[in-house]
Design a protein that fits this description.
Blueprint lengths: L1 H20 L5 H25 L1
Amino acid sequence: MPIFLSFFLMCVFQWFLISLSVLPGRWDAILDHLSIINVISDATERSDGKNN
């Protein structure tokens, strides 16, 4: 459970930093930042699958 909580908090903090760095109304820029999070989470899931 702590792993999921820490991942959630990391995503929330990342969203907070993105919202500070992007001008309001620039959703395309926000989505570009979020695509990096998706790549990282996919890589994490793949590496977890190899360890089991």
